[in-house]
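Researcher: Go.
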Amino acid sequence: VGKTCTLLRYIDDQFEEKSMTTLGVDFKSKIIDVDGEKVKMQVWDTAGQERFGNVTSSFYRTAAIVAIVYDVSKRDTFENLDTWITGIDRFADGVVTKIVLGNKSDKEHVVELSEVKEFLAKYGIDVCEISAKDGTGIDEAFQLAAKQALQCRKNSAPKGKQ
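Model: Structure:
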């Protein structure tokens, strides 16, 4: 679906046509500005295959944000969103900001954005269409997720610690 390509585009502004399947996990970081506040985005790239489920789920415990990536040109990746969301809710400690990224927006859509928005409404999760290939929407999507996570943290902080 392009998780690794999304990470590389976001952090390094690079695109590799042929990227290797992630085995286990990898991470990169980037400091961004969110409404005048410096935020370190430590982005973990976890394997998407079920055989790595135990590894992936352990990272949900300490995550502030989880980005779920699907391929707009492959319906089955959209149909798996519910499984990913349920897994995150089961394994995350406390409140985690979730965002869905519809990758490969430069390709012909098999899944329309309106359908994804309708599906995600029950979860209160935003969706952004992106293209790791040409960079469309990548920075905006991560900026939105960072804003939501910061707001969530401020709302859940004890009074006086905001």
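Model: Residues 3-155 form a domain with the Rossmann fold fold (CATH 3.40.50.300).
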